[in-house]
Description:
The chain is built from nine helices and eleven strands. By secondary structure, it is α/β, with parallel strands linked by helices.
Amino acid sequence: MSNRPDPFQPGFIPKSAPVGSEPDAQPKTNLGSPEPSPASEVAPTPSPSEQDSQGGLSSSETARVKSALATGGIESASAGAEYTGRSFFLNWPVWLARGYGLYSKLLVRFRTEGYPFDLGGPCIFIIWHSVEMSLLPHFGFSRGNIMVSNSKDGDILSLAVGNWGYPVIRGSSHKGAVRAVLSLKRVLTSGQNIIMAVDGPRGPRHVAKAGAFWLAAKTGRPICPVGAAVNRALVFSKSWSKSRLPLPFSRVAASFGDLLWVDKGALAMDSEAQSDFLTKAMDGAMEAAVRLLKTWPDNCKVSGKG
């Protein structure tokens, strides 16, 4: 039983060749035009006035944009999640996160397929909210910055993922959207991965929002859909996301889909079409994760559909 997934150990099953292979070894899906050239993959972040002229933000948002650019808009949950000397009960999210992280590494087996070794730059990993508890404790090797909503639940989640080693960006489509999008764009252009749960923060379940599509088009960086399946789990049936908590000695399979490149011209598509594009990509990744779990020795039975 492996304590921690390691993409460089035999248990890891990549679809593409290791680093050093030909650039075209990783399957890519282009939308709008061919894959961008290396020189254009990471462009410098434009100033607020440039963004206005390019149609990135409306003039009414300029003040908020300038404020976000001045403050950075990035919160490090790792620093904020440290034990502060207060009572155990006031620090319960921190202790719970540490306990669950240890539980996941010791008592949950994890298997992956298709991690894109030859990215050549940062990537936008997208997931569903329902698989966060199955996937995130094991996904630290991606070194991804994760977006967490500005809500009470988000406050707790930011402490948890900070303890698992993820830098946190706060914001959602309902609150702090401009600040969060600018922060995500800055993180990508600085060469760091990001992780987004694209069907939130209020649902509907397994229907993607178009934010990741916009980021991919504006930064020239690819989207990688990530699906996960677990054979035995506790389902939080009253939550909108139907999140799953892997049970002791359960198995989690994660599948990384083909890279999706989005040309700036594709932003002419309406938001519903952009959402459908991401939703179909995620559905494919989830189905691949179920197939991977079923090929595990002794043919695991899948607990729901994620």
